[in-house]
Amino acid sequence: MARPVIAIVGRPNVGKSTIFNRIIGDKLAIVEDKPGVTRDRLYGRGEWLDQEFSIIDTGGIEIEGEDHILRSVRVQAELAIEEADVIIFMVDAKAGVTPADSEVAQILFRSQKPVVVAVNKVDNLQRADDIYEFYSMGFGEIVGISGAHGTGIGDLLEEVVKHFPDTVDEEYGEDVIRVALIGRPNVGKSSLVNAILGEERVIVSDMAGTTRDAIDTPFEKDGQKYVIIDTAGMRKRGKVYENTEKYSVMRAMKAIERADVVLVVIDGEVGIIEQDKHVAGYAHEAGKAAVFVVNKWDVVEKDEKTMHQFEQKIRDHFLFMTYAPVVFLSAKTKQRLHKLLPVVNTVSEAHAMRIPTHVLNDVVSDAVAINPPPTDKGRRMRINYATQVAVKPPTIIFFVNDPELMHFSYQRYLDNKIRAAFGFEGTPLRLFTRRKS
Ligand code: GDP
Ligand code: GDP
Fold first, then answer.
1. For ligand 1, is residue 59 a contact (CB within 6 Å)?
2. What is the CATH number of domain 176-350?
């Protein structure tokens, strides 16, 4: 299910990243191995009263040169308008309304997107009155908060959640595989989309959906329906900032959220670079099925070992995504292109796979019998049973005598055993432990 996206916008130093970090908190406490996932976060997930959402800190975008603050906030505001369902517009109670604030206000106002103004740095009661000045910007909903003390954030989220759309996940039927292509600029995403659509027996449908779907491309091949999400997001508009890493990562966020399967496109000619890792990490965290697509395979000089070596490099770089299969192809010559959609089908099935509880428990009991949990200070974890509680991604809860006793390495062992038994190729698994004796 696509989670609604919140974007935080505001000029530098109002406290965006402070609030962002407070909102995402330790939500990623999913016990999972994630070396290499970027620390310098622009994007995270949170929840408020059982409402899950994704949140973007647009403060990562900075444009150099004259008027850089005004230009940066303008770009941030435009990005937020395009990508977010609700915008938190953050200002600083101590500073009052500044020209950069007014600039952002005007852009947001015209967009008609829901905006909630967060007046930060309301650290004490004296300053509570400072929020009234901000009503002059024209937005009705204003909440005073303090990143320093962590106050008001619940009230803020309560306002924000009110504006979430009701039908985020009902754009396409369950029989349609939603595919997003991500990757840094110039790896060949647009070429690949065109190549797929130009393939034999691909029927590009004009079942243009409702509102924003004009930028999605639905098609059908061999009886399977697909939609390539957010194709417009890949169109280059030639502005300098659009080639910056942070911008392209944020642009990909909404597409990732709306997808079932994410194709992480890598330039086979250039090889893997750090930026590829960040992009892939977001797909992983979003819990999407993933396929590595090594493009431009036509220009790679190769012998019979090249593919294997390249795959090994991918495994070394993306330790957190060993589940994702790798496809080598050329969008330009269409060499090996026919391999792609069958893999997309496979990972999509794995992503939606449901394992009956008794079958899962047989596998877990066998795993425990072969290799019992280690003892910790004389105590041993006992797994009473396991059950899969969700799909997309498959999510399994282990009910145990004491969750503290579930060690990371043992969890990884169980993860491996479950994968060995059921496949789950191309999908992350979420494993949780709960107390039940
Ligand atoms: P950003 O540039 O908008 O992301 O702002 P930061 O989150 O980096 O915060 C800028 C500065 O404001 C930092 O020094 C923060 O410690 C400080 N700050 C953030 N929230 C508060 C707050 O509620 N009260 C006060 N007094 N300072 C804050
Ligand atoms: P995007 O920015 O990721 O959408 O990348 P584009 O699709 O615009 O491609 C960037 C450049 O790579 C263009 O010059 C393409 O012609 C070229 N390109 C894309 N796919 C291939 C490929 O399979 N082989 C070769 N040799 N070049 C490619």
1. yes
2. 3.40.50.300
Q: Is the fold of 5-162 the same as that of 176-350?
A: yes
Query: Domain 357-435, what fold?
Result: GMP Synthetase; Chain A, domain 3 (3.30.300)
Cα gap 436→401, rounded to integer Å: 6
Compute CA 24 distance to the chain's CA centroid, rounded to the nearest angstrom.
Answer: 13
Question: Atom 10, ligand 2: which residue's CA is nearest?
Answer: 186
- Closest by CA to 275, choosing from 36, 62, 59, is 36
- Nearest protein Cα to ligand 2, atom 12: 188
The complex scores an ipTM of: 0.76
Contacts of 192 (CB under 8 A, 6+ apart): 181, 263, 265, 293, 295, 331
Is residue 144 lining ligand 1, measured as CB closer than 6 Å?
Answer: no
- Our answer on whether the CB atom of 232 is closer than 6 Å to any ligand 1 atom is no
CATH: 3.10.450.50, 3.90.79.10, 3.40.50.300, 3.30.2130.10. Which one for 5-162? Answer: 3.40.50.300
Is residue 72 in contact with ligand 1, taking CB distance under 6 Å? no
| Per-residue pLDDT tens digits for 219-276 | 999 999 999 987 665 555 556 566 566 676 777 777 888 899 999 999 999 999 887 8
CA of 396 to the centre of ligand 1 (A): 38
